[in-house]
Description:
Elements lengths: L1 E3 H9 L1 H8 L9 H12 L4 H4 L1 E7 L8 E10 L4 E5 L6 H17 L6 E6 L4 E5 L3 H19 L18 H5 L6
Helix pairs in contact: 1-2, 1-5
Amino acid sequence: MHLTATLLNYYLLCHRKMWLHAHAIRMEHTSDVVYEGKLVGEHAYPQRAERYTEVEVSLEPEVPDGIGLAAKIDFYDPHLGVVHEIKKSSAKEHAHIAQVQFYLYILRRKGIKAEYGLIEYPKMRHTERVELDQNGEIILEDWIANARKIIESDRCPPVLPKSKCKSCSYFDFCWSGETEE
């Protein structure tokens, strides 16, 4: 099993969502928000596939039966070492930044040039540069360690307050038959 950028993104948003996704309980296919995000990513920059490379990288776990790290980067400029990530909106910006930092981290660990990342929000006509310095690496390694512990747990984390879950693809799954305490 591998900790992916998607799982790290979910770790920062909702531990329960991350755990469910890691345990093959997937609800994204039911979400219009997720579908719209995929369309933006696929159609915002049609020339990208000609100029940049899709990269899949993984780091195997340090211990047997551990959780490795894996990333699938849609747009990577190997000449400049720049990771490009396209997002629909900046609503979850902190998690977006962490996702790009995760890509940079894995690329660097594999000895692949990774200078910085760019998060592009085509609907807002905004681009944000993402760096990963030594402090950022320490924070990222802490998140990775914590995410691994949660994923390895036999128990699904509790739900967040309902108000934080309204646009989540797991909303019906998590809240059917449950009441907020």
